[in-house]
């Protein structure tokens, strides 16, 4: 009896299980959209006329690219192009991407630990900066920790449902995951609002402020990206798009979401809890 890979190979007239991708406009469209997005953002930051609208134009271009590229990949999966060999390659690519993301966040943790453990001796350094009150660890950060951990459980619930060929339950679990993700984003935005507007704690507050906002801010951006990823999977589950044998798109989303959860645990323990409880002052060496 022919295997699933052999069947898919024969169906597409190939003598190999690999997918030869058709010419796609999305790489060049995405590249062209990235230019006004980044260039416009720099213009906006420097108060150059039109910067805001150029940034918006680039952002819309990125959204169009995401929509079109995701649509094409989903159609490839439905057409049977994602054989076992192709799926294995997609999983490997996602694993390598997450590895690069780990190194990305390692840079921010490195900066934070350097500022906390080996502060420069050439200038006066106060941790936390004078007049700055660290974000209370056991309020919104702890609540958001519970929210993210719960979302990790619900996305795992969805995975088990898909393995049982139960897209209806997977849809419910994914919908709950998306609600939890949006709730996390809402509370983080509120946390930033209170810290910046009411407490005066900003990105300009030395290593403490810059490392805090860069690390937690980029994590928040990853939560938003992961939320979009999960929304796409939720729609696909609603359309009965996943099978126990074919759900590599969901696996990629689940891996990414568990990565987001893991990074948050490090942020909560080391940036909010440990870093927020440190207090010292360094006097510059004469």
Structural summary, described in words:
The chain has helices spanning about 5-10, 25-45, 50-80, 85-115, 140-165, 165-200, 205-240, 250-275, and strands at about 125, 280. Helix 2 packs antiparallel against helix 3 and helix 6 runs antiparallel to helix 7. It is mainly α. The chain has a two-stranded antiparallel ribbon with strand order 1-2. The model is unreliable at about 1-10 (pLDDT under 50). Helices cover about 75% and strands about 0% of the residues. The chain has a domain at about 100-280: Up-down Bundle (Four Helix Bundle (Hemerythrin (Met), subunit A)), CATH 1.20.120.
Report strand order across the widest sheet.
1-2
- What's the average pLDDT? 89
Element string (H = helix, E = strand): HHHHEHHHHE
The CATH class label of one domain is Mainly Alpha
Task: Catalogue the unreliable spans.
Answer: 1-11
CATH architecture classification of one domain: Up-down Bundle
β-strand number: 2
Topology:
Layout: H1 4-11, H2 26-45, H3 51-78, H4 84-117, E1 125-127, H5 140-163, H6 167-198, H7 206-238, H8 248-277, E2 280-282
Antiparallel strand pairs: 1-2
Q: What brief labels describe this structure?
A:
286 residues; 2 strands; two-stranded antiparallel ribbon; Four Helix Bundle (Hemerythrin (Met), subunit A); globular
Summary?
The chain is mainly alpha-helical and 286 residues long. Helices cover 73% and strands 2% of the residues. The radius of gyration is 23 Å and the shape is globular.
